Amino acid sequence: MIQWRKSSHSQGGQGECVEVSTNTVDTLIRDSKNPDGPRLSLSHTGLTALLHQIKAGDLDLS
Hints:
InterPro entries: DUF397. By secondary structure, this protein is α+β, with helices and mostly antiparallel strands.
């Protein structure tokens, strides 16, 4: 059974919540409003790279 944890940054707002589940191999990410929907699976290295890009603003759509 997968144990999901809601991001501490997801409190309040418009219900835009992200949940994560980690194990020794990868990290799963899903939208808490759609728990049966698609999931993103990233290696720990891939997650680190994604977070770095987000923090650097490399993925901003504006």
